[in-house]
Write a structure and sequence with these properties.
elongated; 16 helices; 7-stranded mixed β-sheet; disordered N terminus; 722 residues; alpha+beta
Length: 722
């Protein structure tokens, strides 16, 4: 593509959008270590946005500034890095590449109009990247591929291109390929222009390609042209090309740009960014900027999610128009003890201005600790973030992204709209957190602050689910994985000053009778004045799984007055909640009240409640009490090559595999029934077994008897402190 020239701006000034057509919102997607953050640094430096590119190893990059990122030397948060090139504002959205932080990654895709898949020439393509490509394909997201680290010793550009074509399918084709020198890559050859872009001197110079590349150019150029023509709206191009006509390069470039913006063609580019042990020229950054500016869609060309009135009704038609009604979405929320809550907002329609009132609405995440809310709030200052640097802006129009201060109720995923006509946007897909982590406050002082701190974490992160389990008396954080849990616990301590300790997770068990038994409950006390008198005889029988509790009244002759029979049942129910052996609730029993005695003066409701409870404990002492464990129905989606491993593992977890079925794309869905005790850490184990390609869901099914060899161990654990 022709170089239209770049704009060099100062780091202290936020680039301005000259209109909806002059904005490009690009999410950088790829596995951890692929070089996304390093590429962002190179793009910022190439456009003069920053004076010098930072290094991940030194903790000096724009995108990674959180303490957790600096310590781990990898991104765990979505970060915005705006720059300007050729009169176009480019909002680079650097997303985490580790599966535990897929929530921020999907938020970045929501804010973007195109995705740039960053693939390492050293490491290739991982399972998460494959799944994200499929997700983008499902919603028609325009994509391009940039292959990084072509200058490293183990980097193989050609093999990586072949892997991309094999995994990503049709429409993936290189538009450049690197040239080699004695010390590594020295430049690129443009397949459409057939010109060499030489970087060996540190600056880009255009020249004729070395004759040794001519055969490679001809072969790859033919494949590229055929791919472009297949996506062209000019139906005569293919006939003209087949007949031998030399198609004008400008026409091919125009068709390529249209095909990319429409989501039907995926150009492959190459970059080399020198760092550490790999000194050398920066290669491919200018070419990447040209593709982003010329071929990636503007907000005008990308669809807007469905918008409906808050009170219900048919969807509203919304256009990307700065003069239209305000429709914006919070794609990321962060809280700071000193600054307060800051919301990263993508504006889809209208213009957001400081010190104006907007309507904040959020719905549909009650199960994760987010209350439905509709409230009007006044917008604080608007800024354009460059990493942790906040640069004040006067407004943010349709198609652009900015940060908003002082929206105290706004959470990730909320919609901002005009108070006079509030609307809500359809939520984006968010994975379920499936790793439970039990925590407890480290001290009384921490306990006092824990609730507020957790509330802020939940507002920031929709992939976190908070559960206060009344049965096990544990506070449980449902996380995406171990790294996610570590970051959350670390953030509680470093950001909010709350220390928590991890505890062994308790699975809520049940008790039931192992056979029929009779029980006597005798509550007779006389201590002067009004006494207590209640005697009852019961018979307990086990019911089938799921039978619950049945109470049968077989009293005859009024030996227990009618008004005290419900008291016996109430006492039984209270004791069932407390359990009769290991302290777990008692279920699946039928209790028959057969006989008893009462006193005309001393009998009372409380006396017969106590007698009922004692009778149940007395019956329990006569028969074995069985522990029941919860069993989940588990659905696993896995690549075909891992089916055997996953099925064997499920069986080893005392699971019963019910069946499997083939899914298009080389995957298999497996259905199984597995005890909850065996899948506490399945989110981690499945990821390891499947190399990141496996996903699963779980739903409670029923309770089943716990095997005898586990009963003693589990019962002992139930009496440990919470």
């Amino acid at each position: 593509m022709a170089d239209k020239g770049g704009h060099t701006g100062g780091a202290g000034r936020a680039p301005e959008a000259g209109g909806c057509d002059k904005v490009r919102n690009v999410a950088l997607v790829g596995h951890s270590g692929a070089g996304k953050t390093t590429l962002v640094e190179a793009l910022l430096a190439a456009t003069g946005t920053i004076q010098r590119a930072g290094r991940v190893e030194d903790g000096t990059t724009v995108s990674d500034f959180d303490e957790a990122e600096l310590r781990r030397q990898r991104s765990v948060n979505l970060a915005l890095a705006p720059l300007e090139h050729a009169g176009v504002k480019i909002n680079l959205i650097d997303t985490p590449g580790y599966a535990d932080f897929v929530g921020d990654l999907r938020a970045g895709l929501r804010a973007a109009d195109a995705a740039l898949f960053v693939i390492s020439a050293v490491d290739g393509i991982d399972g998460l990247t494959r799944m994200l490509w499929d997700e983008c394909a499902a919603v028609g997201m325009p994509r391009a591929v940039v292959i990084t680290k072509i200058d490293q010793q183990r980097g193989d550009y050609d093999d990586t291109v072949l892997a991309c074509q094999d995994v990503f399918g049709e429409g993936v084709a290189p538009v450049y390929f690197p040239t080699d020198g004695d010390g590594g890559p020295t430049g690129l050859i443009g397949l459409l222009t057939q010109r060499c872009l030489d970087y060996s001197t540190g600056r880009r110079t255009e020249c004729e390609p070395d004759p040794r590349y001519l055969e490679q150019i001809a072969e790859q150029r033919a494949a590229l042209i055929e791919g472009i023509i297949q996506e062209s709206e000019d139906e005569t191009l293919m006939d003209r090309y087949v007949s031998g006509e030399d198609i004008d390069v400008k026409a091919l470039i125009a068709d390529l740009e249209t095909a990319v913006a429409r989501g039907g063609f995926y150009p492959v580019l190459a970059t080399a960014v020198p760092h550490g042990d790999h000194p050398g020229p920066v290669i491919g950054v200018q070419e990447l900027l040209e593709v982003i500016v010329q071929a990636f869609p503007s907000p005008l060309e990308h669809g807007i999610p469905t918008v409906t009135p808050v009170g219900g009704g048919p969807p509203r038609k919304v256009a990307c128009d700065p003069e239209g009604p305000l429709v914006a979405e919070v794609v990321k929320t962060t809280s700071d003890p000193y600054v307060g809550r800051v919301s990263l907002v993508r504006v889809f329609s209208g213009t957001l201005r400081p010190d104006t009132v907007v309507h904040v609405s959020g719905h549909g995440l009650e199960d994760r600790g987010h209350e439905d809310h509709d409230v009007d709030e006044r917008v604080g200052a608007l800024t354009s973030p460059l990493g942790k640097t906040q640069r004040t802006v006067a407004s943010c129009g349709a198609g652009d992204v900015c940060a908003v201060a002082k929206l105290t109720r706004a959470e990730t995923g909320d919609t901002l709209s005009d108070p006079g006509s509030p609307v809500i946007m359809a939520p984006w897909s968010m994975p379920d957190p499936l790793l439970p982590v039990a925590v407890r406050a480290h001290s009384k002082a921490d306990e006092d602050k824990l609730g507020q701190a957790l509330g802020r974490l939940v507002a920031e992160d929709p992939t976190l689910r908070l559960e206060n389990n009344s049965e096990t008396r544990q506070l449980v954080l449902w996380c995406m994985g171990e790294a996610h849990a570590e970051v959350l616990i670390e953030r509680l301590h470093t950001r909010y000053g709350v220390a928590v300790d991890r505890a062994e997770l308790r699975v809520p068990l049940r008790e039931t009778f192992g056979g029929s038994a009779k029980g006597l409950g005798r509550h007779v006390k006389q201590s002067g004045g009004h006494g207590q008198y209640g005697i009852c005889h019961i018979e307990v029988e086990p019911l089938p799984s799921g039978g619950g509790f049945e109470f049968v009244d077989k009293i005859v002759g009024g030996v227990i007055p009618r008004q005290f029979v419900p008291s016996v049942e109430k006492g039984l129910r209270h004791q069932m909640e407390r359990g009769v052996s290991a302290g777990y609730p008692l279920v699946d029993v039928r209790v028959t009240l057969r006989d008893g005695k009462a006193h005309s003066v001393d009998s009372s409701d409380m006396a017969f409640q106590a007698a009922g409870a004692q009778a149940l404990k007395d019956a329990a002492a006569a028969v074995p009490i069985l522990l029941l464990e919860p069993v989940d129905e588990v659905d696993v989606l896995i690549a075909d090559e891992h089916v055997g491993t996953v099925m064997s593992d499920l069986t080893a977890r005392r699971g019963r595999v019910l069946g499997s079925r083939a899914i298009p794309g080389g995957r298999t869905a497996i259905k199984a029934e597995v005890p909850q005790l065996e899948i506490v850490r399945y989110a981690i184990d499945l990821r390891s077994m499947s190399h990141g390609t496996g996903t699963f869901s779980r739903a409670f099914l029923r309770y089943e008897p716990l095997p005898s060899h586990l009963t003693e161990k589990v019962a002992a654990a139930s009496h440990q402190p919470a």
